[in-house]
Amino acid sequence: MTSPQNHALDWDAAGQIAPGTSDEPLVPTSTCAHWITWPVYFKNGLDGALAEVLVRASVYDRLIKASCNLPEGYQLVLLDGWRSKEVQNTLFHTIRQQVIADHPKLKPNEIERLTLQFASRPSDDPLRPSPHITGGSVDVTLADPDGQFLDMGSQFDEPSERSWTLAQVEPHHMERRHVLLQAMTTAGFTNLPSEWWHFDYGNWVWAWYSQEPKAIFGPTDAA
Ligand SMILES: C[C@@H](N)C(=O)N[C@H](C)C(=O)O
Ligand SMILES: [Zn+2]
């Protein structure tokens, strides 16, 4: 199994990748008929979360390709795209608290390691930005033709091994993850192996997983 122990996001790797400088705009996604937009953090009342899912224009184009790649019976659902540093900070600390609650005996460095599988450090440093602050990351899931969100074998943002993309969950959950992974990677995204829902295009995480020497996108504002 592809294990996040082997493929964990390596923040030191960011230093080996030339930072992205593209000024491509962030675009809204909610009016597109190719998918359902469900800005999950706004719906959950998270302070500062946007009611719109914003992504870079070329991420938008690739999402259209991904939705067209899906077999009959599936719809793409966009849960999150661009995220402010403040929202990233809240998510990082919320997930860290959940890791501590789930594993009260873990040492601080193990808490850190586990947390980082499920939430990036809040950063707008051009050399090491949090992936979502670049507008190149998306969190996505699948729905059925009636718009019912499908069970993917773990909760979204569940900080456990069940969330690893290739985890040994129930066969029908593995099948759904495979469908999503196939549609997204064929469209040009890379997946974070510790999260079945998180995909990147154009940022340093994408550059690292696809062995590109340079990122396209650095941190940006939603202005
Ligand atoms: C918080 C979660 N939805 C997510 O996006 N995790 C990745 C690792 C991130 O925070 O960049
Ligand atoms: Zn994400």
TrEMBL record:
GO molecular function: D-Ala-D-Ala dipeptidase activity; metallopeptidase activity; zinc ion binding
Transmembrane segment boundaries: none
Record's keyword annotation contains Repeat: no
Active site: E195
Region (Disordered): 1-23
Cofactor list: Zn(2+)
Source species, domain of life: Bacteria
Signal peptide: none
Binding site for Zn(2+): H132, D139, H198
InterPro entries noted in UniProt: A_A_dipeptidase, Zn_M74/Hedgehog-like
Cofactor: record remark: Binds 1 zinc ion per subunit.
Recorded catalytic activity of this chain's protein: D-alanyl-D-alanine + H2O = 2 D-alanine
Keywords carried by this UniProt record: Cell wall biogenesis/degradation, Dipeptidase, Hydrolase, Metal-binding, Metalloprotease, Protease, Zinc
EC nos: 3.4.13.22
Site (Transition state stabilizer): R83
BP terms from Gene Ontology: cell wall organization; proteolysis
UniProt similarity note: Belongs to the peptidase M15D family.
Its job: Catalyzes hydrolysis of the D-alanyl-D-alanine dipeptide.
Annotated protein name in UniProt: D-alanyl-D-alanine dipeptidase
Organism encoding this protein: Pelagimonas phthalicica
Gene: ddpX
